[in-house]
Amino acid sequence: MPALPALPATVDAALSFPAFFNPRWVNLIRRAVIDGNADMIIVRDLPLCPTAVHVGRSFGIPVVLDMAENYPAMMRALWETGRQTPLDYVVRNPRATAWVEKYSVDAVDHIITVVEESADRVHALGVPREKLSVISNTPPRARVRARRDTPSRDGVDIVYMGNLEVARGLLEAIDAIAILAERGVSARLRIIGRGRDERLLRARAAELGLDSKCVEFLGFIESHAEALEIVAQSDVGLIPHRKCESWDTTIPNKLFDYMAAGIPTVSSNTAPCERIVTETGAGEIFTSESASSLADAIVRATARGRREALGEAGRQAVLDRYNWEHDTAVLEAVLERSELQGTGVPVHMLP
After folding, report:
1. Each residue's pLDDT tens digit, 286-297
2. Pick from 279, 280, 266: which is nearest to 235 by CA?
3. Cα–Cα distance, 171 to 173 (Å, whole number)
4. How far is 117 from 293, CA to CA, in rounded Å?
5. What is the pLDDT of residues 82-97, one digit of tens each?
6. How far apart are CA 179 and CA 290, in angstroms?
7. Looking at the domain 142-320, which fold is it?
8. Do domains 9-138+325-349 and 142-320 have the same CATH topology?
9. Architecture of the domain delimited by 9-138+325-349
10. Is the pTM of this model over 0.85?
């Protein structure tokens, strides 16, 4: 979106917020449709979905919603941890986002969900099954690492990649490192990313006497390849998310990144992660919000011989099923079917 040079940057940013009632976004999407001679609109962000529907109808072209997460539940999870900001009361209100979602799922031509549990939830909202497809956030097969030997170093390197938020279970992850230290297990948690609760997490580590040799904050890493290299050199990939409706209806990218790297995944018992990790044998599951259960799972995942077996099972599962080549075929079929179902006039025939 082009900046408005006459306005201060903060004001321009506020006026570009992706809300469905923002006329700047209406105009931008309309211009993109015209300039691109578009046959279809795929909308990725729920707050902009009503805008996309409005523009799509004005041009007579289908609109597909790519629903990566349970947006209303994600907002509720944020509020339940008490970590919301004053702005969240206006733009991330759970009740308002639920209304926007209900309107959107009824209005669009097709919905892509990221995992089966999400499709089940949307179907329960009254959306027909034929209007739903599951396309996960999987990596290409080319990203799968070769089989690896167990590192010869002492101790266990655990990696977390993602936003730094209480709802993602990172307080419990830090507590688990302290528990392992008390048991005489040498472990280091390496945290890749940034987020609203970083200061709180750093304070917890300091409170427990955990220095950078035990909990290392690596910050946001611009290069995805560099971040994946750190993952590949680790012993365990961690998904400590707190179990709630939000995480029971979405799937984090890092699950497949860990599997493709050939390292075991240790995950909380959120429904999609528990199902996939258990089905594939790619890791260990622990009870959400229990630091001691997490510590136990790390010990199980890194037992002699177990680490290699879990890592190889995850690697093979990405090669066989959880890869972008598989999901690309589903996506192509969805787009072709949605385009054929569109009943509007082609954009190039519009004035």
Report:
1. 999 999 999 999
2. 266
3. 5
4. 24
5. 656 655 555 567 788 8
6. 11
7. Rossmann fold (3.40.50)
8. yes
9. 3-Layer(aba) Sandwich (3.40)
10. yes
Q: How many Å separate Cα 78 from the centre of its chain?
A: 15
Distance from CA of residue 347 to its chain's centroid?
Answer: 34
Q: Which helix (H) or strand (E) holds 140?
A: none
Q: Please give the Cα distance from 323 to 302 (Å, whole number).
A: 25
CB 4, CB 12: distance < 8 Å: yes
Tell me the HSE value of 94 on the side-chain side, using a 13 A CA sphere. Answer: 13
Domain residues of the chain, as ranges?
9-138+325-349, 142-320
Burial category of 200 from C-beta neighbours within 10 Å (exposed 0-12, middle 13-18, buried 19 and up): middle
Name the phi and psi angles at 180, rounded to 5.
-60, -40
**Nearest one of 291, 276, 260 to 187, comparing CA atoms:** 291
Q: Answer yes or no: are the C-beta atoms of 275 and 249 closer than 8 Å.
A: no
Count Cβ atoms within 10 A of the Cβ of residue 216 and give its class: 0-12 exposed, 13-18 middle, 19 or more buried.
middle
Please say whether the beta carbons of 50 and 104 come within 8 A: yes
Alpha helices in the chain (DSSP H): 9-15, 23-36, 49-59, 71-80, 88-91, 94-107, 116-124, 170-182, 198-207, 224-232, 253-261, 271-280, 291-301, 306-320, 324-341
The two structure tokens encoding residue 61: 């072209």
Under DSSP, is residue 132 helix (H, G, I), strand (E, B) or coil? strand
Per DSSP, the three-state class of 192 is: strand
At 66-75, the pLDDT tens digits run: 998 888 888 8
A 10 A CB-CB count for 139 gives 19
Question: Taking phi first (over 0 means left), then psi (-120 to 50 degrees means alpha), and beta for anything else, what does residue 192 get?
Answer: beta
Phi, psi angles (nearest 5°) of residue 105? -65, -30
